[in-house]
Amino acid sequence: MMEFATEYPFWVAVIVLLSMCAIFGGLLGFASIKFKVEGNPIVDQINDILPQTQCGQCSYPGCKPYAEAIANGEAINKCPPGGEAGIQALADLLDMEPIPLDAEHGAEAVRTVAYIREDECIGCTKCIQACPVDAILGAAKLMHTVIADECTGCDLCVEPCPVDCIDMLPIEVDLQHWAWELPPSAEANLIVTDRNPRVSGEAA
Amino acid sequence: MNAPHKKGQTWDIHGGIHPPENKTQSLGKPIMQAAVPAQLILPLSQSIGAPAEPCVEPGEHVLKGQLIAQAAGFVSVPLHAPSSGRVTAIEDRPIAHSSGMSAPCIVIDTDGEDRWGERTPIADYTAVERTELINHIRNAGIAGMGGAGFPTAVKLNPPADKPITTLIINATECEPYITADHALILERAGDILQGVDVLTHLLQPARILIGLEDNKPDAAAALRDSLRDRPYQVIEFPTKYPSGGEKQLIEILTGKQVPSGGLPADLGIVCQNIGTCYAIKRAVVDGEPLISRITTLTGNALKTLGNTEVLLGTTMQTLLEAHGWQPTPQSRLIMGGPMMGFTVHSANVPIVKTTNCLLAPTAEELPPPHLAQACIRCGMCAEACPASLLPQQLYWYSRAREYEQLEAHNIADCIECGACSYVCPSNIPLVQYYRASKAELRERAEEHIKAEHSRQRFEFRQERLEAAEREKEAKKAARKAAAAKRAAQKEASTPDGDNSAATAKQAEIEAAVARAKAKKVGIGQPAHSDDNEVGN
C-alpha cells in the first residue's frame, strides 16, 4: 500500500480527491433531500409584512400572490394598505432602498370597515362571494351582515352590490385605541416664525 | 448576593429624582367626608381590563352597595352603586382620560337616603374556601388603588408553579402632593393591617414587608403601634421618586429585579397598595364593596386642602367647588400627581377607583411647560431613569419611528414616571414620546395578530373554493364516465344485427371512397377495397 503511494503520488492524490468529492457530494445530496425546505421562505417573510387585507389593489389576487411576485422581482410599492411603514419593512427585509408608494395603486387611507345598510339588502349573496376573508354572513334572499371584527376593509364587496347598500366606514378611535401623538420636534420651536405662522404674516 | 440579609435591610435603585414634595399642605387635618352628590356618574371601565357589563335598567331603584355592573371576563371588575337612588341613564358621558373622550357610564340620581342594601361580611374568613374568599374580593369590585387599577383578585391567583414567598405592601406614595395613603395610615392603620391579614391568609407568604419612605415617620409609627404581635416588617427607606413603582419597591426591599417582561410573581412576590388592603378589609370584614375612596385635594386654587373620603361617581366639579375651587382660564386640573398625572379636559368628569389625587394648582404654582428645545446630549435622563434605560436613545428612535430599535432598547420597561422629563434641561416632553411609541408598538402588534387571522381565513377560503372546484370536476368526470358506461351498456345490449349493419354501412362508405381513389389512380387495384370488406 505504502509502496504504491510512494511510487504513484499523483494517482494517490487523484484517488483521494475523487473519493472526497464522492463523499461530500453524497452528503450534500442527502442533505438536500432530508432538509428540503417547502416553498420559498422569503415569500413567507414578505407575506408576513403585507397587511393581509386581500384587497387586490396591487393587481394580484391576494397578499400571498403579491408576496410571490415581490420575491420574483416585482416592485415593493404597490400596497396602499401597508403604506410607507410596510414599504420600509419590505425594503429592510430585502435590503433595498425604500421607494414612495405607487399612486397608480391607490393612496394610503384610514382603515375602514364595511357596513351593510340592512334595510336595503336584497340578499343576492354577491358580496359574500366577493369577500376574500368570509367576513359577510347571510344566505340567498336573506339579509346579509358584516362581521366587523373579521372585515379587513378591502372594499371588494362594494362594487358587486347591485343595490349599492354597502358603505365603507372609517374605524373610529375608541378609548382603548386612543394614543398620545408624538410631540412636534423640538427644533421646530427654535424659530418664532416657525412656531407661530401668524407672527410671520404680520411681519410680512 | 445570596448571603442572608439583615432584617429591614434595603437596597438602592438606579436613578431617581428629588422633586419638591409639597405634601404638608394636604396633611394635618383629619380625613373629611364628602357629601352625597345629587347625581353619580359611574364609568363602566374603571380599571385595567374589560369594561363591566351593566345589570340594571334605567328607571330601576338601587340601594347603596348594590351590584350595578358585572365583571366581563377574568381581568375585569364589577361596579356597585355608591349610594341609593334611581338609575336615570346608561349612556356615554365624558370621563377622566387624557383624550377627553366619553365612555359608557351608569348615571344614578341619588335619593338622599343613602340606604344600604344587603351587606355580606365574612365572619371568619379563615374558615371559608380560598377560591370563595378570592371571589368575594373580586365581587367587591376592588382594583389596585395606587393609580394603575389592576384587578386585585387576579394578583391573588398566582400560578401554581410559582408559590408566593413575599408579600409587599406598598405604602410608599412617592409622588409629590399626594397624601391619600399617608392620611389613611394615620387614621386607619388597624383596618389596613386587618386587610393585610386577609392577604396573608390567602397567599401564605414567608415574610410580609410594608415599605414606606422615611418622609412619613408618623405613618410608620402608626403602623408599628397597630402591629401588636403580627410578624410584619415595617421598613423605611430613603425618600426618592419613584421608589413607589412596583418594580422599584421590590428592588428596594428585596434587592431583586423583576425580569424584563416578567411579573413580580416570577420572583415569588405579590405587591399590593395600602389603599387596596383597606378596601379588602372593608369588603371581607364589613361586607362593603368598593364604593368610595380617599382622594387628596390639593393645589393653591383650592381654599380647603386635605384628604376626603368621596363616593365614586362624584364629579370633580362638585367636589372641588365644595372646597372653594377658584379656577382661572390658565389653571389646569390634574388627576393624579404632577409627575404621572394627566390634565383633565373638563372638571365635569367623575371620580373613579384610581383617582388618588386632584391637583388644582394656580398658574404660578404649576406653570405651563416650557417650550422644548433641542437635545444637548447631556445624559442626565439616563442618570435619572429608575429602570436603567437609555431615555436619550429612546427619544431619538421615537422621533425616527424606528420601532425595532425601540423594542431592542426595552421601551416596554419604561414605567412613564417622568423622571427623565423632569431633569431634562431642554424641557423635552420625553414621556410623551415614549407613550406615543408604546401605543404605536401596541397597535402594530395588534394589527399583526389581525393580519395573521385574516391570512388564515383567506387561505382557508382559498382551500375551500379549490376543494369545491375539485369536487365539481370530480362529479363532472364521474357523470361523463357514467354516461360513457351507459352508452357502452346500451351498445352491448342492442341486437348484433344492428351493430353489424352499422359497421357494414361504414365499410361500404370507406369502400366507395377507396374505389373512387382507385379510379383516379388507375384500374386493376380493387383488391384493397375487397380487403376492407373481408376484414369487417
What does this structure look like?
The complex is a heterodimer of chains A (204) and B (536). With 204 residues, chain A is mainly α. Among the domains of chain A are: 41-105, Electron transport complex subunit B, putative Fe-S cluster (3-methyladenine DNA Glycosylase II, Chain A, domain 3, Orthogonal Bundle), CATH 1.10.15.40; 110-173, Alpha-Beta Plaits, CATH 3.30.70.20. Chain A has 8 helices and 4 strands; from the N terminus they run αααααβαβββαα. In chain A, the strands form 2 sheets. Chain A has a two-stranded antiparallel ribbon with strand order 1-4. The radius of gyration of chain A is 30 Å and the shape is elongated. The termini of chain A are far apart. With 536 residues, chain B is an alpha/beta fold. Chain B has a domain at 130-287: 3-Layer(aba) Sandwich (Rossmann fold), CATH 3.40.50.11540. Chain B is built from 14 helices and 17 strands. Chain B has helices spanning 130-139, 152-155, 180-203, 217-227, 246-254, 274-284, 316-322, 380-384, 391-399, 403-408, 419-423, 430-493, 496-521, 527-535; strands at 32-33, 39-43, 53-54, 61-62, 67-70, 79-80, 85-94, 102-110, 166-170, 207-213, 233-237, 269-273, 292-298, 306-311, 334-335, 342-343, 357-359. Chain B is elongated, with a radius of gyration of 38 Å. The chains are: A mainly alpha (204), B alpha/beta (536).
Number of strands of chain A: 4
- The CATH class of one domain in chain B is identified as Alpha Beta
Order of helices and strands of chain A: HHHHHEHEEEHH
Strand order of the largest sheet of chain B: 1-14-13-17-15-16
Q: How many runs of DSSP E, i.e. beta strands of chain B?
A: 17
The CATH superfamily title of one domain in chain A: Electron transport complex subunit B, putative Fe-S cluster
CATH architecture of one domain in chain A: Orthogonal Bundle
Which architecture of one domain in chain B does the CATH hierarchy give at level 2? 3-Layer(aba) Sandwich
What is the highest CATH level, the class of one domain in chain A?
A: Mainly Alpha
Find the structural class of chain B using helix and strand composition.
alpha/beta
Terminal Cα span of chain A: 101 Å
Uncertain parts of chain B: 524-536
